[in-house]
């Protein structure tokens, strides 16, 4: 398969679409956790109970003629190999837990992959909607449409005082996790992030890396999300998150302007050195690739580099992950082989931009 065809097949809509404030906000994501009344949580139920949950969810949403998300497809974890599951994790369509620890799990995906419904992960149902740029309200509208469609045919586990009942106590209440993925190189370069992260956490939000809990902020990409679901309305959670994200956007813009005024030639040199590394390296480790891609995306946003798509960071941060590299190569590879293949893929991808 040619790289161009591979990229076309591998892209999700959020990778190549612009949204509001997309020079800083890469994606907005909503996730709703739900469980079925009278059925044990996934950690405790049998294979037969798991299959019954999948059938209920599939019947409620895939066969629903009024659902507005186009063709939906159910993928069973039992029918996917390790590499296929890893790619779904790298595309943010399923969680590592569903891929690694939920053999009786499944996922329902929309054709554009903005909608993902995980089944039998930590909870029976996890509805996820991803939108490009700062579109938290749009994402929750879509998630609530799916939630309403499911609730017509599935009885949720719900308590009048506690709200939606979930496997993990931190999700009880609305069951809502709202998150925004942000590219914040200006604040990192001006050494503001170490001060800002504790301040964000004091507001009841949490800052994580690109793949969520326990992951690094590779390429200066951070996920900001709510931490509290009990006793808060969906509206309050969304408004508080958006308020913080809006402030971060302004601070990032100010940091970039300050760098341009005080260290313009040094910043330009950094950008073009990273661009040169990406264009010419023969071996490229994950962290180095992420750092250089972040620099190049910053250079594009600030006008140093022209005629290269802004989506280059979104695409290559995903396409250069281990699962995708092996999928493109058509074989399993050791770390050194992946580093070589990563460099090849990046060079080929950048060449496509200039042809």
Automatic annotation (TrEMBL):
GO molecular function ontology, one term from the record: creatine kinase activity
E.C. designation(s): 2.7.14.1
GO BP term, pick one: phosphocreatine biosynthetic process
Pfam families documented for this protein: ATP-gua_Ptrans
Keyword Transferase on entry: yes
Ligand binding (ATP): 27-31, 92, 126, 177-181, 208-213
Any GO CC annotation of this UniProt entry: extracellular space
Catalysed reaction, written as an equation: L-arginyl-[protein] + ATP = N(omega)-phospho-L-arginyl-[protein] + ADP + H(+)
Name of the top EC class for this enzyme: transferase
Record PROSITE patterns: PHOSPHAGEN_KINASE, PHOSPHAGEN_KINASE_C
InterPro entries in the cross-refs: Arg_Kinase (IPR023660), ATP-guanido_PTrfase (IPR000749), ATP-guanido_PTrfase_AS (IPR022415), ATP-guanido_PTrfase_cat (IPR022414), Gln_synth/guanido_kin_cat_dom (IPR014746)
Alphabetical UniProt keywords: Allosteric enzyme, ATP-binding, Kinase, Nucleotide-binding, Transferase
UniProt motif RDXXRA motif of the pArg binding pocket involved in allosteric regulation: location: 338-343
Regulation of its function: Appears to be allosterically activated by the binding of pArg-containing polypeptides to the pArg-binding pocket localized in the C-terminal domain of McsB.
Entry function: Catalyzes the specific phosphorylation of arginine residues in a large number of proteins. Is part of the bacterial stress response system. Protein arginine phosphorylation has a physiologically important role and is involved in the regulation of many critical cellular processes, such as protein homeostasis, motility, competence, and stringent and stress responses, by regulating gene expression and protein activity.
PANTHER family: ARGININE KINASE 1-RELATED (PTHR11547:SF38), ARGININE OR CREATINE KINASE (PTHR11547)
Family: Belongs to the ATP:guanido phosphotransferase family.
Protein name: Protein-arginine kinase
